[in-house]
User: Fold these one by one.
Assistant:
Number 1:
Amino acid sequence: MPEQMPPTPPEREKPPPGGVNIGGTGNVTVGGDVAGGDIVKTTTQVGFSAAAVQRLLLIVGGLVFVPAACFFGGGLLVGGAIVAALNRPVEVSPEAASSMQTKINRLQAVEPGAPFHETFTEVELNSYWELVAGPQMGLTPGTGAARVLGNNRVVLSGKFASLGNFKVLAVVEPRVNTPGRLFQADSAAIQLVPLGNTSLGWLPAPASAVQPVVDRVDKLFGSNVEFTGTAISGPTLTVNGLGH
């Protein structure tokens, strides 16, 4: 008798189309049928703009060595001094962040032509940047730091998901007599390789790359005021100005 062939198994049904697509430069796109339910396709942009990301990553890719004593922003501040300030421990508390928010609310309520005077302590600045403002800018939670420097400047730092979680710092200077434009990015750097509490591994970057983030800080403080004078005394930033 001829040998009998085994029955052909029935063809399995193909799974329905779907999936997850992840795009670069800080955009995350989810679509299709995931976990048995329809997901509405969304795109979210956080942190730096695509142009800023490209500029910073091109700089990172173009260098393989960073001197320990490099100068940021035309030599106004030595890199080691900035890193030392960031390594200095400063308290972070919800109460200090709330106090900072109260002062910002007062600035936003200043009437045209009315004078104002506010002081921001380093603890308030640091707490507000880490707990409130930083996450709104795309900062990875728990990585933010703000320090008051000499020479009328403040340094902001943190890790940004849109930059591959690289740590970035921006030296920021308050501006006077520029309504609605309260802060200017003076210089910037990106940490290419974490090498402890030293300036080794930090790479200077163009201040223009971080200015869009600084402009968003402006909007938090309010576009209805201008600084007419600023001063730093110890770990405190003092600003005077007018509503407009």
Note: The longest helix spans residues 94-108.
Number 2:
Amino acid sequence: MNPFIEIPGKLLLTGQYFFSVPDLLIARFKFTARIDMKNIKVDFMHIYPGQLYGSDYNWEGGLFTEVFPELHPDGEKIIYSFPVSHDLFITGLNSDTYNTVYAGSNFAGTIHSIDRNTRKTPGKIALIHYVRQDMYAAILYDKYRKVYYRFLLKGIPGATIRIQKEDKPISVIVMDENFNYLGETVIGTGKDWYWQNSFVTSEGLNIEYIEKDFDETTMTLKIFTLKKI
């Protein structure tokens, strides 16, 4: 679940379509709700990019169609990270037209959709396909250091059904405020880090760390800090 994003007078909440997006919906399904805090009215905005979804692409299973938003530093645009694209997609709050910028890993491979009819894609096939490929996740802006962090969940070639999605190595890609690549670091796997609970403070990028003796009454955070090398 994505966190709420606050803009003047409104809250934004981004969801997703949980199956391959059919052509009939690619220009109609809007995944971000805009909630007016004065009158609680809700309207919807922003659609899946046609170059990534729709057509004959098979992105079944729910993992491939997640949408990760971040408010642009100017406060007037939204930056979207989609799992299946090396690019970021940037659009205005009242627009469905995207500008794209490359924001990928120097080590990620080509991302392919599932080579199977969408109606004949068992969940385990979709999961194996997800685990085997490099997949992008959240994008976060650090206003203190004027950099972006983007998570990459690295593929495990040859993975079988015994391998879980939490086994994927997690890399943090760092870019400057113009999306120029600065570097990236593998921090562990999804069994070490619950990257979904991550946020930026003046100290750096905070990421939930999963203790061996897990206790649901507490949360451990570790801070990803930048170093010049």
Note: The first helix runs from residue 123 to 132.
